[in-house]
Specification:
Strand 3 (78-81), helix 4 (90-93) and strand 4 (99-103) form a beta-alpha-beta unit. This protein has a single domain (3-224), classed as TIM Barrel (Alpha-Beta Barrel). The longest helix has 24 residues, at 3-26. Strands 7-6-5-4-3-2-1-8 form an eight-stranded parallel beta sheet. Helices cover 40% and strands 19% of the residues. The chain starts with a helix and ends in a 6-residue tail after the last helix. The chain is α/β, with parallel strands linked by helices. The protein is built from nine helices and eight strands. The structure holds pyridoxal-5'-phosphate. Pyridoxal-5'-phosphate binds at residues 38, 40, 61, 82-83, 166, 203-204, 219-223. The site of pyridoxal-5'-phosphate (PLP) has 13 residues, from strand 8 and helix 9.
């Protein structure tokens, strides 16, 4: 077997070990924390190897790249969109993915709703929050979140399931803590039509810390597949 595949197996073992360790330390025994494999730039054969090893959730950043790879993917894994999504691209993925994690405007929510209705389905979404207020990042500002949630909740063919974030790469826990507070405060409001059961937070450099702060979906790319090669 090719050595790249052996690395994936070893990386996955290490990730599961550290996830379990963080969960045992910081979380209650019945919390389920999902692992997503982030596939950008990764060849479908490698992605499928991870799926064979038990990864059941894939994260896609770019619509174009996803479309070029999806036919080669093992269909047993679920697919979520996690990258910035232009409204004119929604039509290409609406029938294939089970969740869109990167919804940060009412315009995008409305377009997803319109096409989901046309496809006779209900699309799960997360609202992406720009918790660090970084200009370079997508995501809605925390103070605008309530309005987005309330308007999204009125759309019949989408279901808001929680929040997603990419915190600034500071190495400090403060943004993870803010995000947890925001998530819990929204959940407490029990907005009609909004279920806050998913907090998608944590990447290769901070997934153990993210679990400490309540994440139940970590998104890992390089830690699983190795450094990305953009060419
Ligand atoms: C690339 C990416 C990840 C994974 O990042 P790594 O540091 O490679 O683990 C997670 N989430 C999003 C939204 C990404 O774009």
């Amino acid at each position: 077997m090719c050595s790249e595949f052996i690395d994936i197996e070893e990386n996955l073992r290490e990730i599961r070990y550290r996830m379990n360790e963080a969960a045992a330390k910081y979380r209650s025994g019945d919390d389920v924390i999902r692992l997503m494999a982030v596939t950008k730039t990764v060849a479908p054969e490698k992605v499928n190897h991870a799926v064979k090893l038990g990864v059941d959730l894939l994260g896609e950043n770019r619509v174009q790249e996803y479309l070029s790879k999806k036919d080669a993917y093992d269909i047993s894994a679920e697919v979520h969109i996690i990258g910035h999504l232009q409204t004119n691209k929604v039509k290409y993925i609406i029938g294939d993915v089970s969740m869109i994690q990167s919804v940060d405007s009412i315009r995008l929510a409305e377009e997803i709703n319109r096409l989901a209705a046309k496809n006779g389905r209900i699309m799960n979404i997360l609202c992406e929050v720009n918790i660090g207020g970084e200009e370079s990042k997508n995501g809605i500002a925390p103070e605008m979140l309530d309005e987005l949630l309330q308007r999204a909740a009125e759309l019949e063919n989408i279901r808001v399931r929680g929040l997603m974030t990419i915190p600034p790469p500071t190495g400090s826990d403060i943004f993870l803590a803010h995000m947890q507070e925001l998530f819990l405060s929204v959940r407490e409001k029990k907005l009609n039509g909004v279920s806050m059961d998913i907090l998608s937070m944590g990447m290769t450099h901070d997934y153990a810390e993210a679990i400490k702060y309540g994440s139940n979906l970590v998104r890992i790319g390089t830690g699983l597949f190795g450094a990305r090669n953009y060419n």
